């Protein structure tokens, strides 16, 4: 059984129902209205507003001329080879504060990450020990 179609939209309002009378204002209301209109037409400066932007995290130190930047020695360690038998991985320490624009994500500095060069060798040793000889 098919669903019946939705009802038709109501007709648009006609101008016969619209209020076409001029508003009646007393002298003080009219004077205030005219003063506002003249201020607007002159380009009068409006009252300054304070915007409280809460979209970013609140940091301990406000950003200003006195706040010194972190940065510091960008000591990205040496690479070393990938795969088995590859050597070395350096210590990737990143001193100072985090890079700008991260919203305080690395406020205390970049974390020290462990090298992944030895991870493959360690897992391979565990797999060998876990397998039974056949």
TrEMBL record:
Molecular-function GO term, any one: actin binding
Indicate, by first and last residue, each region the UniProt record lists as having compositional bias (Pro residues): 1-14
Q: Which InterPro entries match?
A: WAS/WASL-interacting_domain, WH2_dom
This protein is called what?
Answer: WAS/WASL interacting protein family member 1
| Bias type Polar residues, positions | 21-31
Task: Give me the stretches of Gly residues compositional bias.
Answer: 65-106
PROSITE patterns the UniProt entry points to: WH2
For the region Disordered, give the residue spans.
1-134
Would you tell me the Gene Ontology cellular component terms?
actin filament
Q: What are the BP-aspect GO terms?
A: actin filament-based movement
Superkingdom as given in the UniProt entry: Eukaryota
- Domain WH2, first and last residues per copy: 32-49
């Amino acid at each position: 059984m098919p669903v019946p179609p939705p009802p038709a939209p109501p007709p648009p309002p006609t101008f016969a129902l619209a209020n076409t009378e001029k508003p009646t204002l007393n002298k003080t209301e009219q004077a205030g209205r005219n003063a506002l209109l003249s201020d607007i037409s002159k380009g009068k400066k409006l009252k300054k507003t304070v915007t409280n932007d809460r979209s970013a995290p609140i940091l301990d130190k406000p950003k200003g001329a006195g706040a010194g930047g972190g940065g510091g020695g960008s000591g990205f360690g040496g690479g070393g080879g990938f795969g088995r038998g590859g050597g070395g991985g350096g210590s990737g320490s990143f001193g100072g504060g985090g890079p700008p624009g991260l919203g305080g994500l690395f406020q205390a500095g970049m974390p020290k990450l462990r090298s992944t060069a030895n991870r493959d060798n360690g897992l391979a040793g565990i797999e060998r020990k876990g397998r039974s000889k056949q």
